[in-house]
From TrEMBL:
<keyword id="KW-0489">Methyltransferase</keyword>
<feature type="domain" description="Ribosomal RNA adenine methylase transferase N-terminal">
    <location>
        <begin position="20"/>
        <end position="188"/>
    </location>
</feature>
<comment type="similarity">
    <text>Belongs to the class I-like SAM-binding methyltransferase superfamily. rRNA adenine N(6)-methyltransferase family. RsmA subfamily.</text>
</comment>
<feature type="binding site">
    <location>
        <position position="40"/>
    </location>
    <ligand>
        <name>S-adenosyl-L-methionine</name>
    </ligand>
</feature>
<dbReference type="InterPro" id="IPR020596">
    <property type="entry name" value="rRNA_Ade_Mease_Trfase_CS"/>
</dbReference>
<dbReference type="GO" id="GO:0003723">
    <property type="term" value="F:RNA binding"/>
</dbReference>
<keyword id="KW-0808">Transferase</keyword>
<comment type="function">
    <text>Specifically dimethylates two adjacent adenosines (A1518 and A1519) in the loop of a conserved hairpin near the 3'-end of 16S rRNA in the 30S particle. May play a critical role in biogenesis of 30S subunits.</text>
</comment>
<dbReference type="InterPro" id="IPR001737">
    <property type="entry name" value="KsgA/Erm"/>
</dbReference>
<dbReference type="InterPro" id="IPR020598">
    <property type="entry name" value="rRNA_Ade_methylase_Trfase_N"/>
</dbReference>
<dbReference type="InterPro" id="IPR011530">
    <property type="entry name" value="rRNA_adenine_dimethylase"/>
</dbReference>
<keyword id="KW-0963">Cytoplasm</keyword>
<feature type="binding site">
    <location>
        <position position="85"/>
    </location>
    <ligand>
        <name>S-adenosyl-L-methionine</name>
    </ligand>
</feature>
<dbReference type="Pfam" id="PF00398">
    <property type="entry name" value="RrnaAD"/>
</dbReference>
<dbReference type="InterPro" id="IPR023165">
    <property type="entry name" value="rRNA_Ade_diMease-like_C"/>
</dbReference>
<keyword id="KW-0694">RNA-binding</keyword>
<dbReference type="GO" id="GO:0005829">
    <property type="term" value="C:cytosol"/>
</dbReference>
């Protein structure tokens, strides 16, 4: 058996727990003709069972040595391997109705999640293994400890469901933190959405950049003339108290105020 030493710079922790792999496969429930893209196939923990179910699988691997192991292990007719960094990969090249899965490197998980938002219109669903702390932030509700910018930005675009936790003992080498499996399903185009998405991002970022301050103070550089009663939000609330729909309402109001 080939021994592969994990590389810290790629954040590699390889899933080795067969029971967890089975639970992930049940969650994904792949069909033979699904168009699935796996990010970070590693040593084939998910790749092998996926290939047993699929006509073909596209996998993106940044590590050249791992890529060679994968090529030696799997048929090139079944596994389409792309050597690239997923954070710069153009996922729109894979067509429509794609499904994305992967054990995401913890050191780039947040920027990668934001990168994938740009192709949410062509995605059916996403199933990821992430650091538990990140998943708890993704699914957090207003006024809870974990609710923040990541919660708002992702929940505006996806229905997010935390499926189950995974202990460090399920990996080799063992990470220092717990992990979680999360499912993201893009919301439809007719959802409640901001009129100007770029401005919405700016408002959310400004609000959480000074999260201990009231909205009146954290947003005063954007506008000092907000009609709080009109948008039914208290100026004394903090960013962590505001729901996604309220942030959308606030963003639209601010934008209209700036245009006027």
């Amino acid at each position: 058996m080939m021994i592969f030493k994990s590389r810290k710079r790629f954040g590699q922790n390889f899933l080795v727990d067969a029971s967890i792999i089975e639970k992930i496969m049940i969650a994904i429930n792949p069909k033979s003709n699904d168009s699935i893209i796996e990010i970070g196939p590693g040593l084939s923990a998910l790749t092998s069972p996926l290939l047993n179910k699929l006509d073909r699988l596209i996998a993106i691997e940044i590590d050249k040595d791992l890529a060679q192991i994968l090529r030696n292990r799997h048929s090139s007719e079944k596994l389409i391997l792309i050597e690239n960094d997923a954070i710069v990969q153009d996922f729109s090249l894979f067509g429509s109705n794609i499904r994305i899965v992967g054990n995401l490197p913890y050191n780039i998980s947040t920027p990668l999640l934001f990168h994938l938002m740009s192709v949410a219109d062509i995605v059916i669903d996403q199933h990821f293994m992430l650091q538990k702390e990140v998943v708890d932030r993704m699914v957090a509700t207003p006024s809870s400890r974990n609710y923040g910018r990541l919660s708002v930005m992702l929940q505006e675009r996806y229905k997010i469901e935390k499926l189950f936790d995974v202990s460090p003992e399920s990996f080799n080498p063992k990470p220092k933190v717990f992990s979680s499996i999360v499912r993201l399903i893009p919301l439809s185009g007719n959802r409640n959405r901001p009129n100007n998405y770029s401005f919405f991002k700016k408002v959310v970022s400004a609000a959480f950049s000074k999260r201990r301050k009231t909205l009146r103070n954290s947003l005063k550089e954007l506008s000092s003339n907000i009609n709080w009663s009109k948008i039914m939000i208290s100026s004394e609330d903090r960013a962590e108290d505001i729901s996604v729909d309220q942030f959308i309402r606030l963003s639209d109001h601010l934008e209209n105020d700036l245009i006027v």
